[in-house]
Amino acid sequence: MLGGEEVEYQDFLSLHKVQLEHAGVPKHYYRRLYEKLCHDIYDSGSYFILLTDGESWEVQSTRTVDGSDANTIFLIDHCWTFHAEHLKKALREIPGLAPRIANIIGVGYPDFDDDDSIDSVTMDAMEGLINNISEKVWEFAETYTIQKDEDKVTICYLMDELGSRIKHSDHPNIKIAPLFLIQKQYAVNLMWPVDDEIPPETVITRDFTLDEADPHKRAARLAVTPNFADSVDRSELRMAEFDRINPFKMYGRIGQTLPDTVPPVGEHPVSVMLNSAMPFSNPIKVSTDMDFMAAAITDPIFSVVSEEADPDVVFISHHFDKYREWYESSPSKIINQFPSENVVCCKDLLIKVARRAQVLPGLEDPETCDEVIRERLNSDKPTWAEDLHPTWMPVSFDLVNELPVFVRHFLERQDRGEDNTWIIKPWNLSRGRFTYVTDNLAMIVKLAYTSPKIVQKYLERPLLFYRGDVGKVKFDIRYVVLLKSVEPLVLYKYNVFWLRFANKPFGLTDFDVYEKHFTVMNYDDEQELKQVDCEEFVSLFEQQYPQFSWSSIDKRSCRMIAELFKSAASLSPPRGLGHSPQARAIYAIDFMLKWDNENTDVIPQMLEVNFNADNRRACKYHPDFYDNCLKALLFDDVSTLPVTDISI
User: Fold this and answer.
1) How many angstroms separate the CA atoms of 533 and 414, rounded?
2) Where are the beta strands (DSSP E) in 30-136?
3) Does pLDDT of 346 surpass 70?
4) Is the sign of the CA dihedral 60, 61, 67, 72 positive or negative?
5) Strand locations in 385-511 (E)
6) At how many degrees (to 10) do helices 30-39 and 4-23 cross?
7) Helix residue spans in 297-402 (DSSP H)
8) Helix (H, G, I), strand (E, B), or coil: what is residue 383?
9) Strands 302-304 and 284-288, how do they pair?
10) What does the pLDDT read at residue 272?
11) Most distant CA atoms of the chain, gap in Å
C-alpha cells in the first residue's frame, strides 16, 4: 500500500506528466523535481553564478553539473507574469517593477544621469523608461497558454535575473521549459543540462528558438533573439519546400461529408417543400437554438418550433458538417450553413481566399492557385506581398504557416523606412478578444507561438469619423449579407448596416489603449457605446467628406464582398464554398475604409466574416430583421424586402 507522500507524488505525476514529457524532461529528474517544488528549493546558486563586464552579462557554472545526477534539475522563478495588453499598466502600478525589469533586460531612463537617485526621476522619465521596457522586453519574454472557460489565455512572463541572462547558442548546454502547476495555478521554469556533464567555469547557454527544427521558422525566431538578429540569413526566411499541398490539412473540415449526387435545384426536395408552402396555407416551421432569433420571428408565414417538431428550416449556433447524412435523412430541410464556409469565416483561410481573388484571373488551371501563391511568397520582387493581395485586403499572413516570410516582409519594410504597425488576431475568435496592435517584431514572433494567429497590416491611414465629444476616431462598418446559393452565386446585402466607433482620437501611438485602436465596446459596461443609425451616419459622413457620396462607397463595398464570395466559390470543398440546395446562410461582414496612397480616394478594407454573428442589436432596432432575412433566403421575390442583390 502506498504511503501518503508516494500518493501525493503519483498525483503530481498524473497532473503534470504530459507537460514534462512534452518539454522533454528526463524521467530520472521527476521525483527530485517534485521534492524541490514541494519545499521551494531554488538551488541554482549552488551551481551557477552571474558575471558581468559592466556592459553585458553571462551565466557560468561554478562546479560540475552532472546530467545523471537527479539534483541537477533547477527551478527558475518568474520575476514578472503579465498579459500583453496590460504590460504598461503593470509597469506603472507595481512598485519597483520597472527598475528591476529595466536592470534585467538592460535598458535605462531616457537622458537620465547615473548620479541621480531613483526618487528624483520625473514622471516623464519614468514613462520613457516604461516605453523602453515595453519595446525591449519582448526579446526576453516567453509565453505559455492556459485554458480559461472557453478560451485559451496567453500568459507572458520574464524569468528572474539568472534565467533571463542565459544567452542563446545553436549548441546549448542546458534546456529551459515552463511548467504550469495545476493545483497551485502558477508556473515556474525548469532548467536541466542537455550535456552529460558541464564542467566548472563553462558559459551556460540555451536555445532561444525553443528547439525549433524547421530552419525557416528557426531563422524567424533568431531574428528577434538578442545579439543574433543582425546575423540572420534572410534567405532562410522562406516557405519550406513542398511536394504537394494537402487541401484537408490546409483547409480543415476533414470530417465533412457531402452527398454523392444532388438533384437540380428545381427538382430538389427543398424546392418542392418551398413551392408547396405557397401561398402560405401552412406556416414554414423554423427551429433555432438562438433565443433572440426565435423571439424576433413574428411573421405568421413562419412558425417557431422545437427541433423535435420536424422543422423545415434549422438555424443552429454550432458548426455543422454532415451534409450527406442530412440529405439522406431530411432531404427537404434547410440548414443555416454552407459546406466549407470556414474558408471565409476563419481568418487564416480568409487570407487564402482573398489572395485567390487576386491570383486566379491570371491562371490557366485554377486548381494550382495554392501552389502558385506559395511560390510567390518566396518572390524577391520588392512588392511581392502587396501584389498577392487585392486592393480591398490588407497585407496579411498566417503566422502558423507563414511566419518566416512575414518576418522577411517586416524587415524589408523596416529597411525601406515604411510604417510597420501590425494587428495580431486569433484565427477563430471574435469581438477583438486576444487581439493586439504593435510595431514590435519580437512581440509578434513570440505571440505567434501561443495559439493559431494571423497578422495583418494595421491601417495607418484609416478614414476617420469626427465625433463632437471626442474628435476624429476610427470606425468600422458591418454589412449583413445573405448567401442563398453558391451555384449560381446568389448573394444579397441587407440594406440596413451598423457602425462601431472608437472612443478616443486615432493616432499611431499608445497601442495598448483599447478605446483608441478598437471599436468593439458593447461587451464592457465600463466603455461608452457610441450608437449612430445608418441613415444618420450617411448624412454625417457626406457632411464630413462632401467629395464622396455614400452610394459610391456602398457600391465599392458591395463589389468587394461579391468578389470575396466569388473567389470562395471558385474551388470545390474543402478549398471553397460547397454547393448545397439545402443550405442558406447569414454572415456579418466587418470592414473599414482607408485612404489610398495619394490621400485622394478611399478603399474599402475587408476585416473579417462572421458566422452566427450576434444580431441582438439588429433585432432590437429592426424588429422585422429575421423575418426579412428568412424571406430573402427562401423565396425568389425580394422586391418588397430591404435587400439588394450584389451577386456578380
Assistant:
1) 41
2) 48-52, 57-61, 65-66, 74-76, 78-82
3) yes
4) negative
5) 396-398, 422-426, 436-438, 453-457, 465-467, 471-473, 475-485, 490-494, 498-501
6) 110
7) 323-329, 342-345, 347-359, 369-376, 384-387
8) coil
9) parallel
10) 83
11) 91
